[in-house]
Amino acid sequence: MAxxxxxxxxxxxAGQMCAYWLHRAGSxxxxxxxxxxxxxxxxxxxxxxxxxxxxxxxxxxxxxRTRGTKEQGLAFVDEKNHHFAxxxxxxxxxxxxxxxxxLRGDLVDIFYNACKENTDFxxxxxxxxxxxxxxxxxxxxxxxxxxxxxxxxxxxxxxSRTRGMVFDDEEPVKSLGHVCSYFTIPxxxxxxTWSRFYNAPDKQILxxxxxxxxxxxxxxxxxxxxxxxxxxDVDGQKKIIHKIFDNEGWxxxxxxxxxxxxxxxxxxxxxxVKVKNFVKGRVALLGDSAWCASPVAGMGTTLAISGAYVLAxxxxxxxxxxxxxxxxxxxxxxxxxxxxxxxxxxxxxACPQTKxxxxxxxTVMSVLTKSGIxxxxxxxxxxxxxxxxxxxxxxxx
Length: 397
Description:
By secondary structure, the protein is α/β, with parallel strands linked by helices.
């Protein structure tokens, strides 16, 4: 195929990964990112399965391992910080973490350094209009520029505005009934090297230490407790989190104090994205814009990396753009359909609404870990494998 002039909307993991591989295929790539710089907010994420296979092709495995969080496992705790259940790093299949667990901002930085020399970045800008003219795509930018591209890739997240300019799916974002806020608080000696998970009725706190640089806090609650959060600014969202978690015991006050002083606060609905098609004409959806599986599925990073590699690979392999985009969707769709399947009752099962429900969850987790049942289940790869039966295609890039 002739070399393409490609625009990617979104400078996150999927966008940067795609830019790297498109350049390897000989294309000219521009990334437009609405933020004035790289966004470092977000949760700890895991690179595994097909995603790790792609990263190894880039020679970045050691960089990710070096900058990883170094978590040793997950501990379930009560109000007195008693560890009533623990799942260590080396627990086969069911470990909550891995040696490739890394903060989202650190992974974005690694990928940025891998692609920045061969990618044009337009920070502080965004797409305001798209016209697919058949042989090219005319793109209008918020800052007034008008440019033509051979292909536009939309990789700007679950709540993408760009997606709606081309695709006509009604309400593609499907809420799972919970919201979550992410931010970094100062590290405390109690944080140690284990993540700690605490439940109160209809809410939960997860603390994930990443050394002296801080501890990542994830605060989740039922959607009804945070109604209207998406229409508020950061200060307004923080007030909602205060209202939900004030006086909830354990280390909630310390966490809220750290939230007040943090600069990386981010809040979102726990949801999935389901669209009829990943491609339309000369526009393709990628990453969470196309198929957000939600943090509950634990597959977001793997899907973003794998999808970016497949999209670039098919564009290099197929004789026309149309055939490449068709092959891209045909390859990824079965993987996405399986990856979006979450356990029955999730995420609510991990966030009981009553004190009795919290007691039941704690009792069940204590029995499962102390009896070894959960570790036996983890040895069944069909239940917990990150590849979900997907075999990564091989391309000459």
